[in-house]
Design goal:
By secondary structure, this protein is mainly α. The protein is built from three helices and no strands.
Length: 84
């Protein structure tokens, strides 16, 4: 019985991680299509003092990296770095 419960939890976790990956890809695709003003507006709407590891903190990092990437004409690696 415990083994079955453990496998059920593993499959549930795998499904959640897959959904998270899909969400991150969708956010990255959206972020690439918006202009600088929309990026700044989105950045301003997120609390600046977020808990480490929270969704807000991750979004702040992604937004700051996108803004810096655009300012430096793509001389900054995307976050997370994409391996060829």
């Amino acid at each position: 019985m415990a083994k079955r419960e453990a496998w059920r939890m593993i499959y549930t976790a795998a499904g959640l991680l897959a959904a998270l990956g899909d969400s991150i890809e969708a956010i990255q695709a959206y972020r690439a299509t918006i202009d600088e003003h929309e990026l700044e507006t989105l950045l301003a709407s997120i609390p600046s003092k977020s808990i480490a590891g929270s969704a807000e903190m991750v979004m702040l990092i992604h937004l700051y990296r996108e803004i810096e990437n655009r300012k430096r004409n793509s001389n900054v690696l995307p976050f997370p770095a994409i391996q060829p």
